Amino acid sequence: MKHLDGQTVLVTGATGAIGQAICKALAADGAKVIIHYGRNRAAADTLLASIGGKGLCIGADLSTPQGATQLWQEAEDAAGTITGLVNNAGIRSEVAVHAPLEQWQATWEREFRINFFAAVDLTRAAILHFRKIGGGRIINMASRAGQRGYAANAMAYGASKAALINLTKSVAQSHGAEGITAVAMAPGWVRTEMAETYIAQHGGAAALAGIPIGAMATPEEVGELVAFAFRRSQASLNGAVLDVNGGSYLR
Question: Rounded to two decimals, what is the model's pTM?
Answer without folding.
Answer: 0.96
